[in-house]
């Protein structure tokens, strides 16, 4: 069983922001699989799917970004999935918009959602799909940037990012994460 956690913030004010690109990727996969992430469980919205014989969960924490680990912990405590099957999908300023980067582990790199998950799991040993949102101009306020919406001229690159992330999630159902890294990193 794979469990994909897309990071974002609940509410209309955050719906189309850079910080919610993880939710956008989960929505794309949910659409492909014909499921809805509308069921409220474990401090999040959860969808269960069976894809090519593999059970998969799509989880959107409803705790706000900085408390994402509460939802991940609640899901882990209730469903008892293998933490090795966790894949977190989230925004990354160090990756260009239009690109994704897969990582097996690591520090939060300043991302408060990842910091919360590490604190609640007690480890940084979980897989990640980092979705590029690019860096703001030097001197810009980081919080304002990640909570801003994508500009019209960024929409095409946004769609590429979301599509690549959804493709990577589907690939991870069939192949080991290392193989997914080799396929999607650098593409």
Automatic annotation (TrEMBL):
Sequence positions that bind tRNA: 14, 64, 66, 112
Keyword Nucleus (UniProt): no
Active-site residues, Swiss-Prot/TrEMBL: 19 (proton acceptor)
Family annotation (SUPFAM superfamilies): Peptidyl-tRNA hydrolase-like (SSF53178)
EC number(s) reported in the record: 3.1.1.29
Pfam families found in the cross-reference section: Pept_tRNA_hydro (PF01195)
Keywords on record: Cytoplasm, Hydrolase, RNA-binding, tRNA-binding
GO CC annotation, single: cytoplasm
Primary location group: cytoplasm
Catalyzed chemical reaction(s): an N-acyl-L-alpha-aminoacyl-tRNA + H2O = an N-acyl-L-amino acid + a tRNA + H(+)
Annotated site residues (Discriminates between blocked and unblocked aminoacyl-tRNA) in this chain: 9
GO biological process, one term: protein quality control for misfolded or incompletely synthesized proteins
A molecular function (GO) term: peptidyl-tRNA hydrolase activity
PROSITE patterns linked: PEPT_TRNA_HYDROL_1 (PS01195), PEPT_TRNA_HYDROL_2 (PS01196)
UniProt subcellular location: Cytoplasm
Enzyme class: hydrolase
InterPro entries membership: Pept_tRNA_hydro, Pept_tRNA_hydro_CS, Pept_tRNA_hydro_sf
Residues with site note (Stabilizes the basic form of H active site to accept a proton): 91
Protein family: Belongs to the PTH family.
PANTHER family: PEPTIDYL-TRNA HYDROLASE (PTHR17224:SF1)
Function statement: Catalyzes the release of premature peptidyl moieties from peptidyl-tRNA molecules trapped in stalled 50S ribosomal subunits, and thus maintains levels of free tRNAs and 50S ribosomes. Hydrolyzes ribosome-free peptidyl-tRNAs (with 1 or more amino acids incorporated), which drop off the ribosome during protein synthesis, or as a result of ribosome stalling.
Subunit structure: Monomer.
Name of the protein this chain belongs to: Peptidyl-tRNA hydrolase
